[in-house]
Design goal:
single chain; mainly alpha; 9 helices; rod-shaped
Length: 253
């Protein structure tokens, strides 16, 4: 009878594994599965939004930057309107920020570039904090679900029942308790992969901004030096008197 009972238990477990569904996984994973589901939905939404954002940028960024810089080399006054037309791109807004200023000095031009770069790069990091939270919380929630499942599986065992048929379902219970840990690791690893991808894209944008900003600043400094030289007028020294004024004689009688 004991062997027959163990065989029946194994058959039922096998049948359940063959017909397992998402609802079964949630019921077996325990209460920790619901916050993991919430984190996974937030991760998927953030990933789709960031992929759409980066897809629009990467297709045109270099073309926009090269067009603005080429125009600035040939005709500086036309670079500002062209950059303003490309304000739907981060690189366009970055280069348009100093160009809209009216004859700024080179230091003010540089400050405008730095401020615009910081603002654009901060916008590109949108969603990073959420992915960081998912990466940190998902494994912990999965581990919590496993601990709660083990407590439920092992809590009904008595010392005197060890090695008997009463503990035959403990192995199955432990396996079900590990579902939440596996789910948490899957969510965390997926979020980490996309997080590193987006970080690499931000780093590439920072290099592009630095290169384009340095080229534009160099062009403006050259233009500023030419204008300063053209408008500077040398100051002639005052004329030196050639004839000394007559002096009154002193000591006349």
């Amino acid at each position: 009878m004991n062997a027959q009972g163990l065989d029946d238990l194994r058959d039922r477990a096998t049948n359940k594994d063959e017909t397992v569904s998402v609802s079964d996984l949630f019921s077996k994973g325990g209460p920790a599965m619901w916050p993991l589901l919430t984190l996974s939905v937030l991760t998927v939404g953030t990933v789709f939004e960031r992929c759409w954002f980066w897809g629009r940028i990467l297709l045109r960024e270099r073309e926009v930057a090269d067009r603005i810089l080429e125009t600035a080399r040939n005709e500086w006054t036309n670079a500002g309107p062209i950059a303003s037309k490309a304000r739907d791109q981060p690189i366009g807004r970055f280069l348009a920020a100093p160009l809209k200023l009216e004859t700024p000095d080179p230091e003010l031009f540089r400050l405008a570039l730095e401020a615009a770069a910081e603002e654009e790069l901060s916008a590109m990091r949108k969603g990073d904090k959420l992915l960081e939270a998912v990466i940190a919380l998902s494994p912990l929630l999965g581990l919590l679900g496993t601990v709660l499942g083990l407590i439920g599986s092992l809590g009904s065992i008595r010392i005197g029942q060890l090695g008997t048929d009463a503990t035959a379902g403990v192995t199955l219970g432990i396996g079900e308790a590990l579902i939440s840990t596996a789910t948490g690791l899957i969510v965390a690893i997926s979020a980490l992969a996309f997080y590193r991808l987006f970080q690499g894209l931000v780093f590439a944008q920072a290099k592009l901004f630095r290169r384009a900003g340095n080229d534009l600043e160099l062009l403006y400094r050259q233009l500023w030096a030419q204008q300063t030289t053209a408008t500077a007028t040398p100051i002639a020294p005052p004329p030196f008197p050639t004839d000394a004024p007559p002096t009154s004689s002193q000591g006349e009688v």
